[in-house]
Amino acid sequence: MMNDFITAIPKGLAAFTATNLDDILILILFFSQVNGIFRRRHIVSGQYLGFAALVFASLPSFFGTVLFPRPWIGLLGLVPIAIGVNRLLNSGEEETEEELSEQSETSWVTNFLSPQTYSVAAVTFANGGDNIGIYVPLFASATWESLLAILAVFFSMVGVWCYAAYCLTCLPGVAQTLTRYGNQLVPFVLLGLGVLILIDSHTLEDRGLAVLALVISCMGLIHLLRLAKATSSKALLEKIPALYPSVKADEN
């Protein structure tokens, strides 16, 4: 039993590193976007939440079943695409929201349940097709002792990954580059990530799933365009008193 526990540790380290090398790049980009409304705690909580969902989706293999076929998992590639499009459409509103957000502090529980946390978790889970593909056979061949060791290694390494990504963003050269180009780069990275997930999971090779992905994309785009239009109209109405102070004076 103890031998299974010990031998599972390097196995867990190898599996985590092999499946999460690309995640550290995404984490670096996330940490470069930290501001008044998007905090480091959102990134760490979201990374843990998304990774826990990947582990949960892979665990049924330990009991001899598989939860989802990989092409269906590939549909999650639409999540980073939606987030990327939303950032492109609402890039001008981030500064105003940041100024408003800095006026109040929220608890850890509130931050864990925030949309920012779920956005990071969604990207982490959507980028985990390879993770599930490797974790399923890994868990299927594990004993209870080795499974506990692997899970302990996995969740410890999530914290190491987050810390390493944060330290990289603190390097002067990396920090200056990401500060200058990060806001413009992140939406396109998310769009590319979503497309790669769809292709790598062979989702688009299934006609039914390809049509479903197209329908979901169109519905999501329409929704995001409506939100962007409503947000821009609200911002314009709020600016009118400042642009025409005489109007406000007449009303008084």
From TrEMBL:
It comes from the Bacteria. InterPro entries: Cd-R_transporter. The keyword Electron transport does not apply. Signal peptide: none annotated. Keywords: Membrane, Transmembrane, Transmembrane helix. The chain crosses the membrane at residues 12-36, 48-68, 147-169, 181-199, 211-228. This is Cadmium resistance transporter. It comes from Leptolyngbya boryana NIES-2135.
